[in-house]
Amino acid sequence: MSSTATRSAGQDHLWSVDEHLEDILSTVRPLDPIELQLLDAQGCVLVEDVTVPLSLPPFDNSSMDGYAVRVTDVAGASEEYPAVLEVVGDVAAGAADLVRVGPGQAARIMTGAPLPPGAEAVVPVEWTDGGLGEGPVSGMRARSLSPEGAEGQVRVHRPAEARAHVRTKGSDVKAGALALEAGTVLGPPQIALLAAIGRGTVRVRPRPRVVVMSTGSELVQPGESLATGQIYDSNSFALTAAARDAGAIAYRVGAVADDADTLRSTIEDQLVRADLMVTTGGVSVGAYDVVKEALSHVGDEDEPGAGVEFRKLAMQPGKPQGFGSVGPEHTPLLALPGNPVSSYVSFELFVRPAIRTLMGLPDVHRPTTRATLAGDKALTSPKGRRQFLRGSFADGAVTPVGGAGSHLIAALAQADALIVVPEDTESVEPGAEVGVVLLG
């Protein structure tokens, strides 16, 4: 990717949010398509149009449990003067050998069963005496308990029009029609349609595999005891969950201590299962910023064209950022700040679009809108920085949640939006219109 000289220049240049995002999205490419089994393709993006090979339903069938009849045989039927028909047999769902319904006859039929030859309509069982010779019934007895229900006579108490309660062949979709367009994200309804038309596999772009790791010797896994100076590792959990929410298959790696060699070896070990790598922490200007130390010169000799460039962005929170590629396959790597809010905001702005690009989605960004700023005091923002503040959005208004500190993770849990204050704005009064990024 970038040379050492270019990376050095990148460190001196104050990048805008848009410049950094454009660099990422111009580098990351959609994953190559593969053929997957239907359930494995859930959440993936279809790369080809799918046409219907057979009509749905593939045959005329009953939409009710009842009796298949000829229209003329039940014309004028009522409870006082029912039509009395001879039951010539059962037609169950999946039946292949169908009885024929002739004049004065009926066939007991189940929901989804093929309409037998000679029949023109279906009368629901509730319109009949169920073959019991009494008044209307509410349902059929199980065949195993009452096999005689498929023979004898049935009294029909209401007339039926032609095709009543019949699902016509092709009424859902006809053979040759377009079932799904390329670019469709496969959710449960789409997978149901593919299964219904007989597709066992489908060609898609796979969900990207994202490896998330946080750095810092002070980090302890949740559930363990804290010693003096230690904190729990929340970033790797937040970002792994966010990656899965974006559509990725995400793997969380336990926190890596502040040691450059350990970090490099950990990254090398994880490359085998990564289409994208995300680190959090260690990208600023401190003496223990291990990610910057470990990756600033990677690729200069061993992997020409690879490397990670560390930048300062005109944004708050999230000023320090890193982007580049690592390993022989030039796997993209995004290095995010370590403060919880900074890392999460950075994920939403940069990592989520990268994941969605790998998936081949046409729209990779969170939805945005305009809203009225609620609250009792003005928002302040440093000049020249695009600020992203946590907010709660409802009914066209957005209310700030928590302060501006990049460590205030409790407020983040209450937010469902980011309030965007442009670079040239230093103060926003309540009642003013602001840009909003919707998070959920």
What would you note in describing this structure?
This protein is of the alpha/beta class and 440 residues long. The chain is built from 9 helices and 29 strands. The protein has helices spanning 4-12, 17-27, 71-74, 188-196, 235-246, 260-270, 290-295, 340-359, 409-412; strands at residues 14-15, 34-37, 45-46, 50-51, 61-62, 66-69, 83-91, 105-109, 121-124, 153-156, 166-167, 178-180, 201-205, 209-215, 219-220, 231-232, 249-256, 276-280, 307-313, 315-316, 320-326, 331-336, 368-373, 379-380, 386-394, 397-400, 417-421, 427-428, 433-438. The strands form 8 sheets. It has a 7-stranded mixed β-sheet, sandwiched between helices. Strand 21 (320-326) and strand 22 form a beta hairpin. The longest helix is centred in the last third of the chain and has 20 residues, at 340-359. The protein starts with a helix and ends with a strand.
Name its key features:
about 450 residues, seven-stranded mixed sheet, alpha/beta, disordered N terminus, about 20% helix, 9 helices, five-stranded mixed sheet
Describe the biggest sheet?
A: 7 strands, mixed
Q: Level of helix content?
A: 10-25%
Q: How many runs of DSSP E, i.e. beta strands?
A: 29
> Percent of residues in beta strands?
25-35%
